[in-house]
Design brief:
The complex is a heterodimer of chains A (313) and B (307).
Chain A (H helix, E strand, L loop, with lengths): L2 H51 L2 H7 L13 H31 L4 H14 L3 H30 L19 H25 L3 H11 L2 H29 L25 H9 L4 H28 L1
Chain B lengths: L1 H22 L1 H34 L2 H4 L3 E2 L4 E2 L2 H32 L2 H16 L2 H23 L10 H25 L3 H9 L4 H11 L1 H17 L2 H6 L18 H8 L9 H29 L3
Antiparallel strand pairs in B: 1-2
Helix pairs in contact in B: 1-2, 2-13, 4-5, 4-7, 4-10, 4-12, 5-7, 6-7, 7-10, 10-13, 12-13
Classes of the chains: A mainly alpha (313), B mainly alpha (307).
Chain lengths: 313, 307
Amino acid sequence: MTAERKAENITAVRMVINWLGLGLFAFLGVAAVVPLFLIIGDVYIKGVDAINRLGGLWHFLTGLPPTPFDESGGIGPMLVGTLYMTALGALLGIAVGFPLGVYIGEMRKEKFANVARAGVNVLVEFPTIVVGLFVYAVMSLAKEDINRYLLGPLSNAISPVGGWITQFIGPLDGFNAYAGAAALSIIMIPYVALITASAYASIEQPLREAAYATAGREFNALFVVLRKAVSRAVLTAALLGTAKIAGETAPLLFTAFGNFYYAPFTGPTGAVPLWVWYAAQTPYEVQIASAYGAAAVLLTIILTIFIIARIRG
Amino acid sequence: MLGFLLVVLLIPYLIAAYGLLFVKLRWGLRLFGAFIVATIGLLTAMFLVEAYPIIARDGVAVFLQTRWDPVRETYGVLQALAGTVLTSAVAMALAMPMALGVAVTINEILPTRWRGLFGSLVDLTATMPTVIYGLWGLFVLGPTLQSLINTLARDTMTSPYTLFTAGVLLAIMITPYAAAVIREGYALVPKPVEEAIYAVGATRFEAALIKLRYVRNYIFGGFFLALGRAMGETVAVAMVVGGNFVRFTTNIFESGITISSLIALQFPNAASYQYMVPALFAGALLLTLFGLAINAVAIYIIQRGQI
């Protein structure tokens, strides 16, 4: 056996190991996304069937949820609650998250900005149920006084506007849509802030100098000129954050609580994820079917937002 | 009154912050920074206050005993703590290889035009609502795992809903979070280093291994971030973990409970008992402290090893 043959053998062994190793990595990587297709397939196959069985799409989107003895039903109240709370939570999340992101992205030399950045990093990873419990604790502490001193007089003052306003403003129950929206916004704020921050941090220095030179005030430089440079990333952050909070369940458990009927937002409010969570664990076939239908609707909402974000971003 | 002031003052605070943005930009921005720091401080303080009754009564015993008996007002969260540790361990053991696989697949194996699509799929895995994972775990994954495990070893898994089911489901859910951090590091390997690796005649697999060693800080960071997610995940786990908060178990093929699912499952009827709400807040406090510690470690590791 010559030295040359030996070297050739080693090369052959290395090639085999190379293919085996790359194959293993590829297998593991694909294994990470296969469940995604299984889940989407499972939800749509059973969900579409359930929606048809429970009375068609329109009835499913507007009707009341089925009791164990019903044969048809929908998720109307939950859909309204989810849309309302997600919209409020997303608005507040962007309104606070965007300036916060500018702060931790642009003022990196400030000591306090680094503290705030660490805070944002911690908050984005926080267990969502903890956020829900926090809002619940604040709510139970503040509810009575807010109703007595603020919302009671306020609802009397605005009562001439018409009865519809009591659906939105009035003395709060312990569980209400606004607590739910607050919990969702606390989850969304750090998400938006981090993406905004990394977008601002990646602006090239010459562009930043040009912005400061032409804009006059720092406010204009940061929020008018440079915003244009990062608007795409911020829009993506806002959309993905909205998709994320639309599907959150844990923070709503003790804040919005859930409701089976169309009801004022000042009291317990239903949400699609809460209905999936509740109905999937009941022993009744019709409610499990409606859970699958609700999951299909929820997934459609989230996939739509996700695809828009990917195409625009 | 304190809570009232807190909520009512929030509105003028935010208005003041926006106003200051126009007048004195930096102070306005600082107010937003202070808002987030105050939220975390307040959250921890709130849980301390709410958990105080049971800590004053039992001391640290509440974290060290395994009995959860509302009728006798005895509360221990040790079995939930054990469940959290076991499910997280199963999840991390499965998720880390998959996360490494995702990073290497995207950066080394796939042709350039497929990378974006594959990355989007991984991101979508992270965006999917957790309750849908729970639904799938409840009706598909749990029964499948049960029959699979029982074919391999008879009668190991008596119920489809066990700590093991929860761990497998968690692994699927947290892989994208670990993968995101590793991918970020992997893409930052300097071009000269990469060229040097190939210049000495490394195969692509060897190059991948060397690069993974090069970004090991990101791998550790991703590990801890994913661990934080696994420990805090609530709804999906609560649906498949079995909800056994009575009996202490360290067998992963039995039904168990985790801290977060204990809170989710027990809180609705907690108000009927004197000490259950404080006990659950003690659990939440534990989760918060874990979250803070794990994130601190993860952030430290990633920042120390920034390439």
